[in-house]
């Protein structure tokens, strides 16, 4: 399975050269196609095709962790 990753850094809010640390604001976008999913009876109006939270929690999603971050940050699906 191919996972596309796009990171757009919008700002470096803090740069601490003495301690070799920085803080940044960024937009992270992950995209993938899961061939195991099959869609049936889709509505022409896209917002009517929403699925419940219980189904979303069962879907596979890639995990992305920032191991060298200042805290235990991992991705969340939204």
Helix content: under 10%
Beta-strand percent range: 25-35%
End-to-end Cα distance, whole Å, is 21 Å
In N-to-C order, the SSE pattern is: EEH
Summing up helix and strand content along with how strands pair, one would put the structural category as: mainly beta
Radius of gyration: 18 Å
> Got a strand count?
2
Shape: elongated
Number of helices: 1
Largest sheet, order of strands side by side? 1-2
* Unreliable residue runs: none
**Major beta-sheet overview:** 2 strands, antiparallel
Question: Please, what is the average pLDDT?
Answer: 85
Describe the protein in words.
With 78 residues, the protein is mainly beta. The chain has 1 helix and 2 strands. It has one helix at 53-58, and strands at residues 3-16, 21-32. A hairpin with a 4-residue loop joins strand 1 (3-16) and strand 2 (21-32). The longest helix is centred in the last third of the chain and has 6 residues, at 53-58.
Topology record:
Elements: E1 3-16, E2 21-32, H1 53-58
Antiparallel strand pairs: 1-2
Key phrases:
single chain, about 80 residues, mainly beta, two-stranded antiparallel sheet, 1 helix, elongated
Give a brief outline of the structure.
This protein is mainly beta. The chain is built from 1 helix and 2 strands, in the order E-E-H.
């Amino acid at each position: 399975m191919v996972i596309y990753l796009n990171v757009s850094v919008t700002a470096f809010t803090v740069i601490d050269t003495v301690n070799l640390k920085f803080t940044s604001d960024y937009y992270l976008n992950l995209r993938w196609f899961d061939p195991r999913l099959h869609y049936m009876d889709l509505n022409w109006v896209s917002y009517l095709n929403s699925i419940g939270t219980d189904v979303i929690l069962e879907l596979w999603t890639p995990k992305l962790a920032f191991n060298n971050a200042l805290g235990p940050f991992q991705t969340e699906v939204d």
